[in-house]
Every structure is written in C-alpha cells, then in structure tokens.
C-alpha cells in the first residue's frame, strides 16, 4: 500500500468516526424526544474490487472503512405489538370515559338519587294511607311524584347529551383522521426525497410512526412499508393512505363513513368503541330507563284512576298517560282529571265517600316492593349500568398494563440509553484519534523522506 493510499485509508477512518460521533450526539440530544428511535451508523470495510478473470491480478487495496448510512434500531414485531396494544387502549379508553360519565349522572347509591326518591315516593303514599284525610300528606305525595318525574327526565337528558357529545367527538375524530392521513402522505414524499439510510430520513420515519400509531389508536389502522420506504395505511381492510393518495372520511351521528362512497368505515380502536356506544350501549340504557318510567306511570295510574279522591270522584290521573318514557314522564295536567297543582284530586280511598279509607294509597305504597314494579325495573337498570361500567374500568386498567408492557419491551430496543451512547461516543472518539495519529505518522514519514532526499531537480 502506498503512502497516498494509506492517507486515504486513514481519512476514511476519520470520516467514519466523525459520522458515528454525530449520530450518537444526535441520539443523546433526542433522548427525551417522544417517539424518537435511536439510530446507528452502518459501516463496511473497503476492500479491493472484484477480479474479473482467473489470471487477473487484484488492484492494490487501499483499505479503510465506509459509512453505508444510518439505520433505526426498531423491532418490527415489537412495533406491531405496540400498535395492537395502542388500539386496545384506545377502545377501552372511550368505553370507560362514557360509561363513567353516565354512571356519575345517576350518583347511586344516594338518598338524593332516583333510588332514594323512589323510596320517599312510596313512603309518601304510605303516609297518606295512614292519614287519608290529610291535605299535607297529599301535597307531599304530589311533591315527591313531581321530583321523581323531574329526576327521570334529567337522567334521560344526561344520556341524550352524552349521545350528542359522542356524535360531536366522532366528527372531530373524522377531522383528526383526515389531518393525520394528509401528514402521513406528505411525510411519504419527504422520506423518499431525503434518500435512503440518512439521519434526516430516520427522523422523518419517527414522525410518521407517531402519526400511524395515533391512527391505530383511533381506528385500529394497520400499515405496510413499501420498497421505496413509503407506507400504506389500511382501516378495516380498505386503504386510507397509499403513497401520497389519501381517502377522506366523514362522520354521521353514529359512525364514520368513507367520503368517496358513503360506506361505513369498519374501524376498531377508539372510533369502534364510540360507534358501539352511540348505536347500541347508550340507546339500550335509555330504553331500560324508559321501562322504569313506563312502569311507574302505568302502575301508578292503574290504581289511582280506580281510587276515589276526597270529593268521591274517580278516574283521576296522577301521571300523564302519554308520558311513558323517561324523557316525557310528568304529573298529569289534564284540566278535568289531572292532579298537577290540585292536591285534592290525589286519590287514597277504594270506596267513594269513605273519607278515612286509605286502602288505595296503601296499595300504591306496596308497589315499591313488587317484583315487577318500578323499583325492580330500576334495580335492573342499575345492575346493567354497574356491570357495564365495572367491565369498562377493568378493561381500561388491563389495556394500560398491556400497553405499558409492550412499551417497555419496545423501548428497551428503540429508546436511547445514555450510558450506551456515551460509551459508543468514547469509542468513536478514540477511533478518530487513532486515525488522526495515522495521518500524522504518514505526514511525518513523507516529511522525513523529502528532507533526506532533497527536492526534485536540485
């Protein structure tokens, strides 16, 4: 190897060591950057060229080292596991948030909640049965009935508002999905332009991976990296992003649709849970609460219309017979037979003219213990709500543990370890110093040769 070739070899060592120093410094600088994947310089020894013929001689080998580029230390299998965990966490997060919101609206168990109001309502009928001639007892029955109807309407309003909020969140999520998709498409182009195995390309990959992970959390999206380093993203088996092409989505009150043809987006993750909540879970809970209101109205009126008020009149309507849902239940305002604002129309007697007969009021009080009464229906509603909410909490806690375990495993490979980076930097620095020492030695040797043999032509 000639002196010039030796210099070339030493120079390649200097360049390679500097590239490693720059890369490890870049890793350290981004140690706390969210979603950053540590990078490593790919190096290869520089050897002689390929000998074409059997009797050809190999050219002189200058030796040295060549930097092939920069690679991200990302494990594909662990990354796939992370995507699955993120999808599950997104689905559990949506269900827990909305179920806890509904549960909080009922504030059970509590004396001021509907269960406590039902107890007081039946108790007011029992008090009227004891004192059937009491105007105050009738006023109390009317007040408790009005409060109970109001609480049922308020509870239905809370669930209706929850549906409205979920629909608005679907719309906001659709906008976020479209925005994420456009950014991924832009990054696809930027990654191709950045060139293969460069630091800038690796950084762009990190940005794109964060966006794809967010899509996985929202929709359960999957992805596939093509040969040119561009990524294709799929939702429900349909392409959302392919190279620089994006398919838009749009929202209705209950689901996401593909803007191009109006077909439903078969999403999982956060959006999938939202769809289940607004189309199945919350409507089923509202229907169950409507059954409580219907039982309260029909069973109260069935006894009350047959009973007699203090004037001996029958057919009095305690609740509006048309208000058979939690949204519409109300004290009857019928001008002829409604009791709203008229306690003297509250009936307690089974026999007309029997002022001290409270048997009808007693029969109404017993509805509180009926296995088919409003209380039983409400307990069934609370049971369904409690089981669904408890399941949502357990699923959310479990998904957090699964995600934490997946993240720990992934980060063990991809996250920057400062101790490792400092050790690698020290090794690269020593390699740089050694290559520089080779350059110095060759320089001294050439200088000595020139001084000993003189100048050409002297």
Report a brief summary of the structure.
The protein has helices at residues 3-29, 76-106, 114-130, 135-194, 199-219, 269-304, 359-366, 374-414, 418-453; strands at 39-45, 65-72, 222-225, 231-235, 238-242, 245-246, 249-251, 256-258. It has 458 residues and is α+β, with helices and mostly antiparallel strands. Strand 7 (249-251) and strand 8 (256-258) form a beta hairpin.
Characteristic key phrases:
458 residues, alpha+beta, 2 domains, 9 helices, rod-shaped
Verbal overview:
With 458 residues, the protein is an alpha+beta fold. It folds into two domains: 3-73 and 418-453, no CATH class; 76-309 and 359-415, no CATH class. It contains nine helices and eight strands. The chain has helices spanning 3-29, 76-106, 114-130, 135-194, 199-219, 269-304, 359-366, 374-414, 418-453; strands at 39-45, 65-72, 222-225, 231-235, 238-242, 245-246, 249-251, 256-258. The strands form three sheets. It has a four-stranded antiparallel beta sheet. A hairpin with a 2-residue loop joins strand 4 and strand 5 (238-242). Helix 2 (76-106) runs parallel beside helix 5, helix 3 runs antiparallel to helix 7 and helix 6 (269-304) runs antiparallel to helix 8. The longest helix is centred in the middle third of the chain and has 60 residues, at 135-194. It is rod-shaped, with a radius of gyration of 39 Å. The two termini are 28 Å apart. The mean pLDDT is 90.
């Amino acid at each position: 190897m000639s002196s010039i070739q030796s210099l070339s070899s030493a120079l390649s060592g200097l360049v390679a060591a500097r590239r490693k120093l720059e890369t490890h410094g870049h890793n350290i600088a981004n140690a706390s950057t969210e979603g950053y994947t540590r990078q490593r310089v790919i190096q290869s020894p520089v050897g002689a060229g390929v000998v074409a013929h059997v009797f050809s001689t190999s050219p002189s080998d200058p030796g040295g080292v060549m930097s092939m580029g920069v690679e991200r230390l990302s494990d594909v299998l662990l990354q796939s596991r992370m995507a699955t965990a993120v999808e599950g966490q997104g689905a559990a997060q949506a269900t827990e948030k909305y179920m806890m919101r509904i549960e909080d609206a009922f504030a059970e168990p509590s004396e001021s909640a509907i269960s406590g109001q039902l107890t007081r309502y039946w108790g007011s009928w029992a008090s009227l049965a004891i004192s059937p001639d009491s105007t105050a007892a009738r006023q109390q029955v009317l007040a408790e009935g009005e409060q109970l109807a109001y609480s049922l309407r308020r509870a239905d309003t809370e669930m209706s508002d929850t549906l409205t909020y979920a629909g608005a969140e679907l719309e906001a999520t659709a906008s976020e999905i479209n925005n994420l998709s456009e950014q991924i498409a832009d990054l696809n182009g930027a990654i191709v332009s950045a060139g293969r195995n460069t630091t800038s390309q690796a950084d762009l990959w990190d940005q794109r991976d964060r966006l794809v992970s967010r899509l996985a959390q929202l929709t359960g999206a999957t992805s596939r990296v093509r040969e040119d380093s561009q990524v294709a993203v799929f939702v429900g088996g349909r392409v959302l992003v392919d190279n620089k092409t994006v398919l838009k989505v749009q929202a209705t009150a209950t689901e996401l649709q593909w803007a191009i043809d109006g077909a439903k987006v078969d999403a999982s993750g956060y959006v999938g849970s939202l769809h289940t909540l607004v189309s199945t879970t919350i409507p089923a809970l509202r229907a169950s609460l409507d059954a409580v209101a219907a039982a309260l109205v029909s069973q109260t009126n069935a006894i009350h219309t047959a009973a007699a008020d203090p004037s001996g009149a029958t057919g009095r309507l305690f609740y509006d017979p048309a208000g058979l849902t939690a949204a519409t239940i109300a004290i009857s305002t019928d001008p002829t037979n409604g009791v709203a604002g008229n306690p003297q129309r509250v009936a307690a007697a089974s026999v007309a003219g029997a002022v001290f007969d409270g048997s009808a009021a007693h029969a109404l009080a017993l509805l509180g213990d009926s296995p088919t009464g409003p209380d039983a229906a409400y307990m069934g509603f609370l049971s369904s709500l409690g089981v669904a909410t408890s399941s949502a909490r357990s699923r959310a806690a479990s998904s957090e543990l699964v995600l934490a375990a997946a993240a720990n495993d992934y980060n063990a490979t991809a996250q920057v370890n400062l101790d490792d980076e400092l050790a690698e930097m020290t090794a690269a620095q020593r390699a740089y110093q050694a290559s520089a020492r080779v350059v110095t030695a060759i320089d001294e040797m050439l200088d000595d040769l020139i001084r000993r043999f003189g100048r050409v032509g002297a």
